[in-house]
């Protein structure tokens, strides 16, 4: 990728994970994440608690990333950090820290869009993982995002579809909450779905124009369905949990694949890259594989640790921007609603 010796520190703090990673010429030397367990008790991320935990974690996490990479901070060429989108209190911690460190070391500062990070994570040099060729379609699916992006080059990206309400991960997590599962419920629904019948119960898919998504109606439909059924049989959920999970997952995957099909047809692009925590879902992975046979797609899923929120994806954007001399100055500010 590069002939120079470039060391980049990436810092990510947009939601509830404090993360730091060191990259050397496009390869990851360390990728450290402090997850915030505190939110599990609340069934979702509590912004106030998230910023406090970032404050506690940021210095130890960066220390550990440098130590694991086997370099000192003086060897760094630039600091890349998440400018947005995300929770303002969380973003402020990473942004302020990155600015101070870059200032102290007198090295360039690089601001990174978190959503571009999820997409450009596909360009981290990693054995066994192919990089998608341009143009490709990127679908980012997580607890905070649901987007389809047309990518024509590293920095020419166009959002062609996104959720108008909940993110797909929220659809999993909120459905799980209705069923009495822990948070986050996505992995548990995935596990149970493998043991259930996806056709057991039918949930109507939302009708949303174009390539946009909507998941809040599905959540309400599931709530009413469960309330109705438990009125007739108070053990309905316990007796049918695997089938309910399989049916919910089947519906959600159907929604995602329908929009991908439409996007691929409209753009004529058959290279499809996914990212975000929900890309761990075994059903969506299978559906993408099926899409290779049925629609001639080539699909790309990054290494798992680069799909959920992480700083390696921030470091790769930093690396690519460094090569273009695209730096931020010390007046840069976090932006909660930053667009691609
Ligand atoms: O990317 P991520 O770690 O954090 C952000 O939200 O940014 O994604 C977390 C989301 C949660 O909603 C979780 O329920 C979902 O990803 N998730 C899954 C699976 N693993 C994680 N959803 C469905 N199936 C899975 N196997
Ligand atoms: Zn994310």
TrEMBL record:
Keywords: Acyltransferase, Cytoplasm, Iron, Metal-binding, Transferase, tRNA processing. One of its GO terms (cellular component) is cytoplasm. Its cofactor is Fe(2+). It is found in: Cytoplasm. Residues 28-315 form the Gcp-like domain. One of its GO terms (biological process) is tRNA threonylcarbamoyladenosine modification. This is tRNA N6-adenosine threonylcarbamoyltransferase. Required for the formation of a threonylcarbamoyl group on adenosine at position 37 (t(6)A37) in tRNAs that read codons beginning with adenine. Is involved in the transfer of the threonylcarbamoyl moiety of threonylcarbamoyl-AMP (TC-AMP) to the N6 group of A37, together with TsaE and TsaB. TsaD likely plays a direct catalytic role in this reaction. It comes from the Bacteria. The gene is tsaD. It is an enzyme of class 2 (transferase). It comes from Aestuariibaculum sediminum. It catalyses: L-threonylcarbamoyladenylate + adenosine(37) in tRNA = N(6)-L-threonylcarbamoyladenosine(37) in tRNA + AMP + H(+). Belongs to the KAE1 / TsaD family. Binds 1 Fe(2+) ion per subunit. InterPro entries: ATPase_NBD (IPR043129), Gcp-like_dom (IPR000905), KAE1/TsaD (IPR017861), Peptidase_M22_CS (IPR017860), TsaD (IPR022450). Fe cation binds at residues 114, 118, 309. The lineage of its organism: Bacteria, Pseudomonadati, Bacteroidota, Flavobacteriia, Flavobacteriales. Substrate binds at residues 140-144, 173, 186, 190, 281. Its EC number is 2.3.1.234.
């Amino acid at each position: 990728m590069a002939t120079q010796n470039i060391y980049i520190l990436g810092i990510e703090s947009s939601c509830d994970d404090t993360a730091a990673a060191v990259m050397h010429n496009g390869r990851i030397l360390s990728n450290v994440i402090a997850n915030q367990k505190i939110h599990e008790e609340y069934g979702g991320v509590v912004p106030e608690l998230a910023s406090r935990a970032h404050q506690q974690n940021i210095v130890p996490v960066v220390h550990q990333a440098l130590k694991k990479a086997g370099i000192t901070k003086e060897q760094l060429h630039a600091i890349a950090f998440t400018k947005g989108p995300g929770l303002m209190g969380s973003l402020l911690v990473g942004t302020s820290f990155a600015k101070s460190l870059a200032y102290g070391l007198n090295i360039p500062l690089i601001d990174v869009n978190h959503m571009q990070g999820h997409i450009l994570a596909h360009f981290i040099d990693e054995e066994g993982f192919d990089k998608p060729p341009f143009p490709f379609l990127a679908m980012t699916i997580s607890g905070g995002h649901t987007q389809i992006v047309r990518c024509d080059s590293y920095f020419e990206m166009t959002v062609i579809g996104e959720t108008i309400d909940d993110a797909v991960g929220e659809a999993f997590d909120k459905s799980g909450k209705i069923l009495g599962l822990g948070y986050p419920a996505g992995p548990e629904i995935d596990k149970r779905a493998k043991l259930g019948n996806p056709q057991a119960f039918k949930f109507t898919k939302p009708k949303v124009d174009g390539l946009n998504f909507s998941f809040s109606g599905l959540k309400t439909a599931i709530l009413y369905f469960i309330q109705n059924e438990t009125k007739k049989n108070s053990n309905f959920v316990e007796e049918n949990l695997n089938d309910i999970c399989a049916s919910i997952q089947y519906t959600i995957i159907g929604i995602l694949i329908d929009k991908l099909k439409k996007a691929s047809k409209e753009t004529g692009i058959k290279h499809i890259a996914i990212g975000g925590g929900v890309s761990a879902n075994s059903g969506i992975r299978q559906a993408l594989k099926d899409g290779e046979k049925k629609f001639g797609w080539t699909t790309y899923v990054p290494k798992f640790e680069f799909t959920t929120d992480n700083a390696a994806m921030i470091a790769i954007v930093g690396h690519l921007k460094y090569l273009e001399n695209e730096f931020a100055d010390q007046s840069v500010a976090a932006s909660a609603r930053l667009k691609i």
